[in-house]
């Protein structure tokens, strides 16, 4: 707004159709709409931030129990925590935008009441516009009537002079003279009405200018206050975003720094510390010979019974053979068992032949 009593609106809202007042009045009313639309915009923006923040936090919680990731695990944990932090920043931005939107909504509601008061203050200018427009219409009508009568008077004068020149009858000349005099009086009357309309129009113009000047100063003052308020709101909106985006930038810079700290070597070291199974390597096994596997094996003793007596059941069973503690001992034991079975079969055959010989001798 210009300093002093000067007003930018006072110089640029006139014109032939006197539309300046209507434009300034509706512009004032648009201030309420502008504040309302800005509040709605911020509410929608806050809803977007709320959705984004909750989605990031939900994703971070889902990533809290990932499948085994091996040496990449620390970086995954860093990624998850950064998501939580970014989600919290979005939620914080949502709350701040909601608060700002509420302040703007309250301001928008106050504008409605202010505009009602403002309408009463500037209404005289509106009435002056209507009076001026009516005076303009009336003046134009009086001007047309005046010019029309003057034109008829001019024609009547020419007709009278022509009748005199051509020597028309006196009665005809008197008729034309009477008409001419009536028109001359009509011209005087029309001139008076026209001058009165012009005077009234001049007065309306003066009153309109005075009231329009006052209305323009009032309109500009209200608009200046409105723009300052809206400008402040825009600054707050930018400040909120800048503050929260700065926090986002710091969070991302922190992720970058921590990522650089997690070098390949450190990831290897952390994995070894947390998952290492020890440094003791397996001891090479050595063969330890069991005492049972050494020395000669026991042999089967011959029975003390007569040669012709049938072998007892027990004598037919093989003696217990000690087990070998090694594979070689087991092979030896199996070999001895086969030899014993062959020897036993041979002894049995010989005993049978001997018994048969005895029977033959006895029968002879």
Protein model, in words:
- The chain has 364 residues and is mainly alpha-helical.
- The protein is rod-shaped, with a radius of gyration of 63 Å.
- The C terminus is likely disordered.
What percentage of residues falls in helices of 4 or more residues?
over 70%
The structure class reads mainly alpha
**Straight-line distance between termini:** 164 Å
| Shape type | rod-shaped
Largest sheet, if any? none
Number of strands: 0
At a glance:
Helix content is 79%, strand content 0%.
Walk me through the topology.
Elements: H1 9-12, H2 20-62, H3 73-166, H4 170-261, H5 264-275, H6 313-316, H7 327-363
Helix pairs in contact: 2-3, 2-4, 3-4
Summarize this structure as a short list of keywords or feature phrases.
disordered C terminus; mainly alpha; rod-shaped; 364 residues
């Amino acid at each position: 707004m210009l300093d002093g009593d000067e007003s930018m609106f006072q110089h640029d809202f006139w014109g032939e159709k006197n539309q300046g007042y209507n434009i300034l009045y509706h512009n004032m009313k648009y201030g309420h709409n502008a504040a309302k639309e800005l509040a709605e915009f911020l509410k929608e923006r806050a809803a977007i931030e709320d959705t984004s923040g909750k989605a990031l936090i939900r994703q971070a919680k889902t990533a809290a129990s990932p499948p085994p990731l091996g040496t990449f695990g620390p970086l995954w944990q860093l990624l998850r925590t950064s998501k939580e932090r970014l989600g919290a920043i979005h939620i914080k931005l949502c709350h701040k935008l909601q608060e700002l939107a509420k302040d703007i909504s309250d301001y928008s509601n106050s504008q409605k009441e202010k505009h009602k008061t403002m309408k009463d203050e500037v209404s005289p200018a509106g009435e002056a516009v209507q009076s001026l427009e009516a005076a303009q219409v009336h003046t134009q009508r009086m001007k047309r009537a005046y010019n029309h009568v003057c034109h008829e008077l001019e024609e009547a004068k020419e007709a009278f002079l022509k009748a005199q020149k051509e020597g028309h009858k006196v009665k005809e000349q008197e008729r034309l003279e009477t008409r001419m005099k009536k028109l001359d009086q009509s011209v005087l009357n029309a001139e008076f009405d026209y001058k009165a309309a012009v005077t009234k129009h001049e007065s309306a113009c003066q009153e309109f200018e005075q009231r329009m000047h006052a209305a323009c100063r009032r309109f500009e003052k209200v608009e200046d206050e409105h723009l300052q308020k809206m400008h402040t709101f825009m600054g707050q909106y930018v400040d909120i975003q800048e503050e929260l985006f700065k926090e986002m930038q710091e969070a991302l810079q922190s992720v970058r720094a921590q990522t650089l700290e997690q070098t390949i070597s450190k990831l290897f070291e952390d994995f070894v510390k947390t998952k290492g199974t020890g440094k003791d390597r397996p001891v090479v096994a050595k063969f330890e010979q069991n005492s049972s596997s050494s020395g000669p094996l026991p042999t089967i003793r011959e029975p003390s019974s007569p040669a012709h007596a049938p072998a007892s059941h027990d004598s037919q069973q093989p003696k217990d053979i000690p087990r070998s503690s090694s594979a070689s001992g087991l092979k030896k034991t199996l070999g001895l068992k086969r030899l014993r079975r062959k020897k036993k079969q041979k002894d049995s055959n010989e005993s049978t032949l001997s018994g048969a010989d005895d029977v033959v001798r006895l029968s002879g």
